[in-house]
Specification:
Elements: H1 17-31, E1 44-49, H2 55-66, E2 70-75, H3 87-97, E3 100-104, H4 108-117, E4 122-124, H5 132-146, E5 153-157, H6 162-174, E6 177-181, H7 190-198, E7 203-206, H8 209-213, E8 218-221, H9 232-242, H10 249-252, E9 260-263, H11 275-278, H12 285-303
Parallel strand pairs: 1-2, 1-3, 3-4, 5-6, 5-8, 6-7, 8-9
Helix pairs in contact: 1-5, 1-12, 2-12, 3-4, 5-6, 5-12, 6-7
This protein binds phosphoric acid mono(formamide)ester and norvaline.
Enzyme class: transferase
Binding site for carbamoyl phosphate: 53-56, 80, 104, 131-134, 264-265, 292
Catalytic activity: carbamoyl phosphate + L-ornithine = L-citrulline + phosphate + H(+)
Length: 307
């Protein structure tokens, strides 16, 4: 018979709520030291980067090593992928050498092609339209600080970017209300909102950051200029459009008194978030960064069929 389809981790929307919850629980167990032995012993994972990374690179490499596996970190610039070998052929070849592939890419079509032709799991380490590993860490972080996220209100203010789009998918899968305040020009895709609402998600869109944040238990933002938006003209345009969406003390006063503040990092201090908020008592951004390590262990254990 045909071999079972690999357990890809491409988009939160591809997976059901129970599967995602199981992965998250595995990540929590890993964090608590409750994953015994070296479950990845004898396994190799290729980590491919088409774009820079600090957290994703180090948390995957260290996490794989802590689980007893080997990580091979690759820059697409040093691979034939960077000079025209197709993602499909790259997938066919790497499937003969390693046990899983993580890819960070500027084009979601490449990871879809890679996954379609790989016989091993493919993990999304950020695309132009998604960042699901970040969301696993973000849900873990919220729940550590404030308990179950289902039914809570989370406010996103800023660009309707890749991380925002994964938040929309997470709202559908983890059952929280998501209010997004973005300039109209930078709103997330209407099709994605329609999908999430059809799945039963509560998604509210506004252009007013104060309205989005009002009473929220969690306030989230991200850079004004993502890695896929780095032309000079785009930068100017985005700074103008996004200045009113900054997370600062005045905005935070509209949130619930015990609201936490998240940011996937890297932060551009003084732009999308002030120093006072980022270094203030409501910020959990470094717990969030740490949780990439733990949450991704849950993703790896699930993807490799080890739990
Ligand atoms: N948050 C995040 O993915 O950071 P890096 O770009 O440093 O990997
Ligand atoms: N939205 C940001 C996230 C970086 C982790 C980017 O894509 O550059």
């Amino acid at each position: 018979g045909r071999p079972a389809a690999p357990r890809h981790f491409l988009e939160l929307m591809d997976l059901d709520a129970a599967t995602l919850r199981r992965m998250l629980d595995l990540g929590v167990q890993a964090k608590r030291g409750q994953v015994p032995g070296k479950p990845l012993a004898g396994k190799s994972v290729a980590l491919i980067f088409e774009k820079p990374s600090t957290r994703t690179r180090v948390s995957f490499e260290v996490g794989i090593r802590q689980l007893g596996g080997d990580a091979i970190v690759l820059s697409s610039r040093d691979m034939q992928l960077g000079r025209g070998e197709t993602p499909a052929d790259t997938a066919r070849v790497l499937s003969r050498y390693v046990d899983a592939i993580m890819l960070r890419t500027d084009n979601v079509a490449k990871i879809r092609e890679l996954a379609e032709h790989a016989t091993i799991p493919v993990i999304n380490g950020l695309t132009d339209v998604s960042h699901p590993c970040q969301l696993m860490a973000d849900i873990m972080t919220f729940e550590e600080h404030r308990g179950p996220i289902a039914g809570q209100v989370v406010a996103w203010t800023g660009d309707g970017n890749n991380v925002a789009q994964s938040f929309i998918q997470a709202a559908a899968r983890f059952g929280f209300t998501l209010r997004l305040a973005t300039p109209p020009e930078l709103a997330p895709p209407a099709r994605l909102i329609d999908w999430a609402r059809a799945e039963g998600a509560r998604i509210e869109l506004t252009t007013d950051p104060q309205a989005a944040v009002a009473g929220a238990r969690c306030v989230v933002t991200d850079t004004w200029v993502s890695m896929s938006d780095e032309t000079a003209q785009e930068k100017v345009n985005r700074h103008n459009l996004l200045a009113p969406y900054q997370v600062n003390d005045a905005l935070l006063r509209h949130a619930a008194p015990d609201a936490i503040v998240m940011h996937c990092l890297p932060a551009h201090r003084g732009e999308e978030i002030t120093d006072a908020v980022m270094d203030g008592p409501q910020s959990v951004v470094f717990d969030e960064a740490e949780n990439r390590l733990h949450a991704q262990k849950g993703v790896l254990l699930w993807a490799l069929g080890l739990a």
